[in-house]
Write a structure and sequence with these properties.
Blueprint (H helix, E strand, L loop, with lengths): L8 E6 L5 E7 L4 E6 L5 H15 L9 E5 L5 H18 L2 E5 L1 H12 L7 E6 L5 E6 L10 E3 L23 E3 L3 H7 L5 E2 L8 H13 L23
Parallel strand pairs: 1-4, 4-5, 6-9, 9-10
Antiparallel strand pairs: 1-2, 2-3, 6-7, 7-8
Helix pairs in contact: 1-2, 3-5
Length: about 240
């Protein structure tokens, strides 16, 4: 884009976790989010959620200037559902696409609500394969490392074990997301579980996208963020 958007209206989709949600966030203060609190069936409801969020804000699809979606990591199927819906609206509305890491959105939301925090956030997502995706972020939102796939049940010295996650500079990091209690327990006190944050949702995606748009930062594409090859078998409980 050549300049800042005038009165941007963001429509955001998120379905990488245990719920599907759609949010509208407008520069004039109007906002709404609707969600489907179930692990499955996202494809059947996500368009209805979008229409409900737009209606709640008194808008039609033609008002949308940017369409954002959580692009992972997380549920392979859920990521595809959110991205497909977002691409459909983006093309129909001729809107600007924005694809965001769900882990980055979680960390940004946590920092916004804990502005005094100067430490590290460790954002997590369920792989649905018995392990946990995680990535550390500084208080300013900068990623401090790549996304890792950690299995706390493996031996500590395994490349995927808990020791691969812990470095001296991460001691005391606050762990957010579905893996917070598991990783904190496995770290023998090096990491702190923070369960004060809500599950990843479309409003978190919308808020991070809004910040990027306002600051005229590079907007990532609506493309999936896969840390591991898609796993098409039944999820591990």
């Amino acid at each position: 884009m050549s300049g800042p958007a005038t009165n941007p209206v963001l429509l955001a989709f998120e379905a990488s976790g245990d719920q599907a949600s759609v949010a509208v966030l407008a520069a004039d203060g109007r906002q709404a989010m609707f969600h489907h609190a179930a692990r499955h069936g996202h494809a059947a409801v996500i368009i209805n959620l979008a229409e409900a969020a737009l209606q709640a804000c008194g808008m039609g699809a033609s008002s949308v200037t940017h369409v954002a979606a959580g692009r992972g990591p997380g549920s392979f199927t859920g990521i595809r559902v959110a991205l497909a819906a977002a691409k459909g609206y983006q093309l129909a509305c001729k809107a600007v696409p924005v694809g965001l890491s769900c882990l980055a959105a979680m960390a940004a939301y946590a920092q916004h609500h804990h502005s005094a925090n100067k430490g590290i956030w460790l954002a997590t997502a369920d792989t649905r394969r018995g392990s946990i995706f995680c990535q550390p972020f500084a208080a300013d939102g900068t990623a401090l490392g790549d996304i890792m796939d950690i299995d706390p049940d493996l031996p500590e010295d395994s490349p995927q074990g808990i020791n691969a996650l812990i470095t001296d500079r991460w001691e005391g990091a606050r762990v957010i997301g579905p893996g917070n209690a598991i990783l904190a327990a496995a770290s023998a006190g090096c990491l702190l579980a923070d369960d004060s944050q809500p599950p990843i949702g479309a409003m978190q995606i919308a808020q991070l996208a809004s910040n990027l748009v306002a600051n005229q930062e590079l907007l990532p594409p609506l493309a999936p963020l896969y840390v591991a090859p898609a796993f098409l078998g039944p999820s591990r409980s």
